[in-house]
Amino acid sequence: MLADRPQPGRSPSDSPRPEPKIFHHSFAADPLSVRFALRTALARFLRQLSQDEAGTLELVLAEVLNNIVEHGYGDTGHGTITLSLVRDHRGLSCSISDDGVELPRSCLDLGIDDSQRPAPDTLPEGGFGWFLIRDLVEDLGYHRENGRNLLAFRLPLKPGAVS
After folding, report:
1. Cα angle vertex 137, ends 141, 130, to 5°?
2. Any idea what the Cα angle at residue 35 is, between residues 31 and 36, rounded to 5°?
3. Does residue 30 fall inside a structural domain?
């Protein structure tokens, strides 16, 4: 892009820096590390997202990461979570990997329609999270291999310039 090239008579350091398009971070499987990872990921993309998009990203990531810590590792805090985000013209592609326990297939059951959706007050604490995640993301997929979980999805974003 011409806008990213230095203008004649200007040094490359005078040119505006393009917004980062990739975020990759590995962290301990504990609540404090999740909080830091969320803040860092949001800060990386804040200027590229609307306020609603940033809120949706924070909600989805918090739900997924906190579920991994609580259900994948219990109270051990031993383990590593890796979060990768890539911004492109299709939205924000997210992948999360961990070495905790396997995700139950029922969490990703896409065959449930609104008539089968349980009332939120009948679910255990946090039980509505996977319904929320499925409603907010696209291309949700899960795979487990060699003791590692990989969850991937795309957060659709309004069309806009990708720096």
Report:
1. 75
2. 120
3. yes
> At a CB cut-off of 8 Å and minimum separation 6, what does 109 contact?
none
What is the phi/psi pair of residue 144, to 5°? -125, 130
1 within some domain: no
In a domain, 56, yes or no: yes
Tens digits of per-residue pLDDT, 40-81? Answer: 999 999 888 999 999 999 999 999 999 999 989 886 768 999
In a domain, 85, yes or no: yes
**By residue range, what is the domain housing residue 84?**
19-155
Number of domains in the chain: 1
Full DSSP string of 72-131 = ISTT---SEEEEEEEEETTEEEEEEEE-SSPPPGGGG-TT--GGGPPPGGGSPTTTTHHH
pTM: 0.77
Is the distance from CB of 25 to CB of 85 less than 8 angstroms?
no
Residue 67, φ and ψ in degrees, nearest 5: -65, -40
**Domain holding 49: CATH number?**
3.30.565.10
